[in-house]
Amino acid sequence: MQRVAVLTEPDHVVLEEREIPEPGPGQVQVAVRAVSVCGSDVHYYDHGRIGGFVMHGPLVLGHETSGVVSAVGPEVEAGPGGGVTVGTRVAVEPQAECGRCEQCRQGRYHLCPQIAFFATPPIDGSFAEYVVVPAHRAHPVPDSLSDEAAALIEPLSVALHAAAKADIGPGTRVLVSGAGPVGLLCLQVALARGAAAVVVTDVMALRREAATEYGATATVDANDHDTALAAVDDVLGQADVVLECTGVQPAVDLAVAATAPAATVVLVGTGATVTLALDVVQSRELVVKGTFRYAHVYPAAIELAASGRIRLDSMVTSHHPLEDAVGALLAARRDPLALKAVVHP
Amino acid sequence: MQRVAVLTEPDHVVLEEREIPEPGPGQVQVAVRAVSVCGSDVHYYDHGRIGGFVMHGPLVLGHETSGVVSAVGPEVEAGPGGGVTVGTRVAVEPQAECGRCEQCRQGRYHLCPQIAFFATPPIDGSFAEYVVVPAHRAHPVPDSLSDEAAALIEPLSVALHAAAKADIGPGTRVLVSGAGPVGLLCLQVALARGAAAVVVTDVMALRREAATEYGATATVDANDHDTALAAVDDVLGQADVVLECTGVQPAVDLAVAATAPAATVVLVGTGATVTLALDVVQSRELVVKGTFRYAHVYPAAIELAASGRIRLDSMVTSHHPLEDAVGALLAARRDPLALKAVVHP
Amino acid sequence: MQRVAVLTEPDHVVLEEREIPEPGPGQVQVAVRAVSVCGSDVHYYDHGRIGGFVMHGPLVLGHETSGVVSAVGPEVEAGPGGGVTVGTRVAVEPQAECGRCEQCRQGRYHLCPQIAFFATPPIDGSFAEYVVVPAHRAHPVPDSLSDEAAALIEPLSVALHAAAKADIGPGTRVLVSGAGPVGLLCLQVALARGAAAVVVTDVMALRREAATEYGATATVDANDHDTALAAVDDVLGQADVVLECTGVQPAVDLAVAATAPAATVVLVGTGATVTLALDVVQSRELVVKGTFRYAHVYPAAIELAASGRIRLDSMVTSHHPLEDAVGALLAARRDPLALKAVVHP
Amino acid sequence: MQRVAVLTEPDHVVLEEREIPEPGPGQVQVAVRAVSVCGSDVHYYDHGRIGGFVMHGPLVLGHETSGVVSAVGPEVEAGPGGGVTVGTRVAVEPQAECGRCEQCRQGRYHLCPQIAFFATPPIDGSFAEYVVVPAHRAHPVPDSLSDEAAALIEPLSVALHAAAKADIGPGTRVLVSGAGPVGLLCLQVALARGAAAVVVTDVMALRREAATEYGATATVDANDHDTALAAVDDVLGQADVVLECTGVQPAVDLAVAATAPAATVVLVGTGATVTLALDVVQSRELVVKGTFRYAHVYPAAIELAASGRIRLDSMVTSHHPLEDAVGALLAARRDPLALKAVVHP
Question: Are residues A109 and A133 in the same domain?
Fold first, then answer.
């Protein structure tokens, strides 16, 4: 038996004893070492839903996961880059695709309509001692990567996937809208891709300071649209790429206003709707892209973090045992300087 | 002296005598033969403005223009595809770029901040006997193209430019939203690019019939969202590409709802703002593109029309002398079957 | 038992009785109706090998295949566009991928290192009464498509895949090098994508005449390099896209010489090596692309042929029973006007 | 009057007194501070020609140039990023396009058929005290960039332009073929774009050591094809991108052999012809791209060097006064460790 932290209804997390899941064909069992908390976990904790994803029963939260392979199921073959065996330290890519639909066959497995994704109803997550995943979604990590950093490969993958949609490279002037954890990772990724300059906007001074620490060329107070727009213009001129990480309308307005002609705006932050100034989108021929989780990027994320080009450990601001999962969920609310709380089951 | 139809203020067009403009260096003078009316002309006639473009004085409307070169200025060189001389029949690309800014140097001359575009304040258009344009914007047309069709090369260029942003080809399932003149041209262009199927939506039955005549695989009544969405799904499944030609929110909502994962939505229709369902844009990883006029496409448009692959003449539903410019501007309002009114100065 | 035509060694084809293969999980059995002959079949018949693909035992030739589903294995699900059942007429995509390797997961299943492709040693082809294929590789065809046309969906897919690598659309000036069956299909596909002009080169006058019949803007005698280059230039100016369908060095030389700056050259024709004028490739910044079979294009090919935009039936120049498989293999050699010989098992 | 080093015929460089050129409309005059020597300069010195570019009279060599604006002609406007004035330190982009042809209008000014490029017959280069260039080709550099580094912005631009053709980013496994100056710059650029790993091949041990110093993940002795291929495979697996910087056939063979499916090979090194294994190019669907000089990249190159992400100063291995231009041209020949010789007029 194993211990699992279960969200039974909004605001209620209980520790339960459950069967340890056994790996089926093509799967491995992972003994969980670290699970970092994502804003989506907090949202389920508060509201029991995110948009169309609604809890209809108990849900185990947690999807940013690292651990050690503890059992290997039948029919597990070595994949590209070698395979996993009992004892391999891994970053867990928390999704399992059907492998047979049009999206899977086109290489867009993250858009598979049957995708099973950790901590997305009705799929349980990793606030647990053991999880089972497809073997090819358990990605080996080198010793240089801590358990916490290996868990943070997940949000780093979100940032890498988003940035890859925008063709950032030398010469690119980037605006990152929002200096939360994903924004800070987008900032780091843009720099790792050689961006000419990265300006980060946020409404909170402490977050802007964090952006400066992580290498922002400049930060801009987003509280007043016109002042902020002028400040972006002073540092950056116009943005060739915007990585919008807030999902908040005033931030979107600022992001769109700050673009150069032919710029790309990647919508990373979540929300119900987004309203765009159509005349600006047209007269500048903007390209606005939705981004969803990630696909095919875990190995690149691991490599970037292991080589030291992306800093992950410093983003961990608190540690919690499984019985304090709620403490981890509420960490960001209690401390405006908190970035990433990590649960250690 | 020449006669010119001038919009002095909203709802007031007067005929004036004006000097015939002489071609400067690199320019040609064109004796205008046909000017087809665009919705933007009607919008200036009604409101004196379109978004941020505001009349502050008299404005000559008309930008969809054909004619015959009547004088050639100094320093006119033969360009790619040969040059023009007095007597050459031409389709007039109604824009003059600065040629020196970053946008011009990057090949996006239509996004030049200094662009001078016909019938956009304060630049006069072609409801006139003579206009002057850069020689390289006067594109020779073959005899097989009528004067009216040569004028319609302009909106055809809008459709070609929009469709080119969406990589339509064999296998592509296309939704065209709106069966006005631009929608019908987008439909024809999608077919000319080899699209697998093109479904056209509109709220008016007569317009849907026109779409059928121009080759739509099916048409769908857009009045009720859910019914329309189901109807699109019946014929097309999901749309790989949407060419949104209305700028109206319910049509945008339908367009976004009808998309396949990884689809492209091109925003062709104009308006103040557009609101997108962010969770759909993200969970399908949609690409939403603004399109603005056109660049580099007049020769392709002329070739397609001249070879008979795009039908333009049948879209002309009325002819007007210059003194009846108002009749041309109001034609679409008076007759729901009207597509394109043409002024012959 | 069924009859099968087996190539036992070069120049020797014998009819054998073999077991009828039963469909396994996810597979269907197809009763073969038509198999058109490809140059690669003839090459195995003559030489027993194509480059690194070498016969080490008897081989059943034939991979351009249509038929009727005669049995359905277990675990066959309906796929996108519906499913197949006993009695469904199908075009057979003659490849089965592993579905688990990096190439399959990236959506490039045709590059799967474990791909099993008909009539490629040691995989048998379709000169047989029955074949077994993965259910998702048996593509339903409408009644409007003849059995022969359904078989020709295979080479049409080659042409579609090649043309898709070159972004052909309105305005594109295309050079097709070689007027054999694949060249004629590339010609038709380029036109179906809206190409501005398609010039076809060949050394044989009869083949050039065929190109004219299939819609070539012009044809050029490729026998003398300089004359041919001047002739291409006369009609086309420079080529934005070349579809090189011969694999022969003088044709490659002509193709490269005829390019415009920033042009794309797709290498469709096969051979051991190809030598490029490096200074031309560099000073024009050419993009040279290898193309291999196809992926994801059968439905588009079927749609294009069924809608009449591509003519396939007229390419069939002879019919042969299974016992005359050799006659089909030698048809092109005996008759310079022959395009496609079809075997009906 | 100024002093100029003139190549009168192969192997003969003389110092001459010449008129100081005055800047015309839109031009600036630059007092030259540093000119680094390129392999093409040495090639003209040795052979009087490079491929189709042939000296028919005296030629001033040198095109990698920095200096200080010494005079500004009429009609010089501030460009994007501000303008230049007397006293501005600049990196000189050594090309002047016509600005009116199809290539210029498409944004590919470096492919302009009328391009005037320094030290390419009959255009003189910068082994001179003063040169004149279009104002928009004189790019301001910050004080943090030395004169020598500002000259080396030119070859860095070559590397940036080449790497941009290959979409290098996080996760990309890169092979750089050849560890000369351009290879070392390509290596640095690949790392600056976030490449997962960069392996550099060369036949000379000393050059491989230099590659290690500049950050290569590993280096491989290219002398024996099979051994080298196995060594690349050990470190990198297959290469997603190859930057081929030698132009030598055995290196091209190795580069092609080392590719992953769907890889991109950029041909940077120059030569007469290149022969490709057609079956490999096809069965892996390789994309082979020619690259030519650069366009639109000087600002990005300056930014990367100024921010310290690319090391240029350490590549300068000797300094020469103008009267020792020959010493600079021969430096690489005399010293196998020499990378960049710089002339200071």
Answer: yes
Count of the separate structural domains present in chain B:
2
Q: What residues of chain C, 54 to 113, have a C-beta less than 8 Å from chain B?
A: 80-81
Q: Tell me how far apart the alpha carbons of residues A245 and A233 are, in angstroms, rounded to a whole number.
A: 19
Kindly state whether residue C234 falls inside one of the protein's structural domains: yes
Q: How far apart are CA C33 and CA B270, in angstroms?
A: 53
B105/B204 same-domain check: no
* Cis upstream peptide for B122 (omega within 30°): yes
Residue type, D247: G
Domain that holds residue C195: 159-290
Residue D307, domain member (yes or no) = no
CA distance C70 to B56: 75
- ipTM of this complex: 0.97
pTM: 0.97
Question: Between residues 230 and 289 of chain B, which touch chain A (CB distance below 8 Å)?
Answer: 247, 261-262, 267, 270-289
pLDDT band with cut points at 50, 70 and 90 for residue C109: very high
Residue B202 phi/psi, 5-degree rounding, is -160, 160
Same domain, B215 and B260: yes
Q: Are residues D286 and D329 in the same domain?
A: no
Is any Cβ of chain B less than 8 angstroms from the Cβ of A164? no
Q: Which of A196, A197, A309 sits opposite D194 (nearest CB)?
A: A309
Could you say which of C274, C277, C282 has the minimum Cβ distance to residue D278? Answer: C274
Q: How confident is the model at residue A83 (pLDDT cuts 50, 70, 90)?
A: confident
Q: C145 with C9, same domain? A: yes
Tell whether C163 and C144 lie within a shared domain: no
* Residue pLDDT, tens place only, B186-224: 999 999 999 999 999 999 999 999 999 999 999 999 999
Choose from C27, C105, C114, C294 for mutation: most chain A CBs within 10 A. Answer: C105
Q: Select the residue of B51, B285, B290 nearest A290 (Cβ to Cβ).
A: B285
d(CA A305, CA A309): 6
For position D184, which CATH number holds?
Answer: 3.40.50.720
Q: Is residue B44 part of a domain?
A: yes
Nearest to C10 by CA among C53, C52, C51, C58: C58
Backbone φ, ψ for residue A7 (5° rounding): -85, 105
What's chain D's length in residues? 345
Question: Are B107 and D106 within 8 A, CB to CB?
Answer: yes
- Give yes or no: residues C57 and C176 share one domain: no
Q: Check if the beta carbon of residue A344 is closer than 8 Å to that of residue A319.
A: yes
Residues of chain D with pLDDT under 70: 78-82
CATH label of the domain that carries residue C34: 3.90.180.10
3 state SS of A192: helix
SS3 annotation, chain C: CEEEEEEEECCEEEEEEECCCCCCCCEEEEEEEEEECCHHHHHHHHHCEECCEECCCCEECCCEEEEEEEEECCCCCCECCECCCCCCEEEECCEECCCCCHHHHCCCHHHCCCCEECCECCECCCCECEEEEEHHHEEECCCCCCHHHHHCHHHHHHHHHHHHCCCCCCCCEEEEECCCHHHHHHHHHHHHCCCCEEEEEECCHHHHHHHHHCCCCEEEECCCHHHHHHHHHHHHCCEEEEEECCCCHHHHHHHHHCEEEEEEEEECCCCCEEEEEHHHHHHCCCEEEECCCCCCCHHHHHHHHHCCCCCCHHHEEEEEEHHHHHHHHHHHHHCCCCCEEEEEC
Closest CA to B194 of C305, C243, C304, C171: C304
Please name the residue of chain B whose CA is at the shortest distance from the CA of residue D97.
B105
pLDDT tens digit string along A184-206? Answer: 999 999 999 999 999 999 999 99
B166 and B264 belong to one structural domain: yes
Could you tell me if residue C278 is inside a domain? Answer: yes
Nearest chain C residue to B217 by CA: give it. C307
